[in-house]
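Catalogue entry: protein

Sequence with per-residue tokens
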Amino acid sequence: MQNETGAESSIEPRESMDYDIVIVGAGPAGLACAIRLKQVAGDSLSVCVVEKGSSVGAHILSGAVLEPRALHELIPDAREKGAPLGTPATSDRMLLLTPRRAFRLPTPPQMNNHGNFIVSLGLLTRWMGEQAESLGVEIYPGFAATEVLYDADGAVCGVATGDMGRDWNGQPTSSFARGMELRARQTVFAEGCHGSLSLQVIQKFDLRRGRSPQTHGIGIKEIWEISPDRHRPGSILHTLGWPLDRETYGGAFLYHYGQNLVSVGFVVGLDYRNPFLSPFDEMQRFKTHPAIRTFFENGRRISYGARALVEGGFQSLPELVFPGGVLIGDTAGFLNVPKIKGIHTAMKSGMLAAEAIAGHLAAGQDRAPCTTYPDSLKKSWIWPELRAARNIRPGFRAGLWAGLANAGLETLTGGRTPWTLPNHADHTSLRKAADSKPIAYPKPDGVLTFDKMSSVYLSNTNHTEDQPCHLILKDPSVPVARNLPDYDEPAQRYCPAGVYEIVTDDSGAPRFQINAQNCVHCKTCDIKDPARNIVWTPPQGGEGPDYQGM
């Protein structure tokens, strides 16, 4: 047999374990699915959750304002059981920023956060993991699912976790440990945005046939501890406009919660056109605005992270079922972009999938497609919520003002306009560098604004250097031969962790360098690369960022 690098190997076969249901990903969707399965079926179904982060919540990053509807449906006494619901939302503001001024805008009704909570999604998922385990769910953090398994009929029959202890060339080292096969009657993919195995399943079963392409944003987040006199517990602020230009979709948020904590985030739509744009540096520049910087005076930054998020909405949802499995949560694309919320929809999709799968297996259907799951989705509150929001995000492709006008129309009509705007793949949107204006970003001051390397340090990211590179180039010549002359190689700017660089070799020729140890698993490279030449794959299980309270 051969390993991933093509080198001959005589490695022993993998051991296997059998379950009724295997869930890939211990985020809110996967854990809600696991909990509901046990609530419905008890010990009659065995449930396993595999998580690539070192612990439940280690790779979770979100704003996050929680609409608690799905949580209360899943665990009605969640508060009594100690759910970390954080800080109740008390006020909403929206500002339109120009370079020096801020103008108050009416808060869209979708962004009314009365009854919601500002939370740490990492802490919430850890608590959900504890609830799942108390019901008998087996959770295995630190094990990255790297391969989809298929039976003789071509149906998904589980996943395999990656080998540990291979060197840079893919050869086993003294610490080598073979991965495990986790076999299942139904496999639930809950990997979050742009899941690596989910993408393979979507392609194999052609689940996007007749759908719009999925679109994405990149969210960059910091947590600050600020002065008590500047802290407004429960205050929610959203902005749009500066520092982004009017053709680029995006905006920022500041959420005041906890003990003098502020969650500050910046989102840039990955359909941006200027190859010189750096989402990380736009976020740093945002904090310097006169209406924003005062929040951070005498404060200190304590956490950093970045993550891609799904923005395609209703028209980009793929087929959700296939032989042997289902897609749930952000891996399918249930984020409500106008609300800037997806936790509640992710959880609800997991709950509906659980109920459908339990009945499906009880009827002896096993690996037949679980068609009752999409049927139940269409009868739930998820479907009208996402359908009503379907045209707001794609409307901003025409620019800020046209996007706002379209959003107003969609809001006034409750999303009942008779058309559905299409989405376009993010990697197709870049203009050539020769037709674009370079952006001069100010040098970070180390107090309010920072560089990428000091930021990655705060994400607690760690990768063993002597392992196969998990960022794979389909064609190693493309970055220098095509992307550099055409787009000034945008990977060196769209990556928020300094993974990609253009350096010169001894002869003075440009060379594309991958610093894989810096990767925070945002997956932007796999989405935005104009040649679709970069493939993100999971590194060794348990590696990557270790977010604390993000």
Summary: Residues 1-9 have pLDDT under 50 and may be disordered. The radius of gyration is 23 Å.
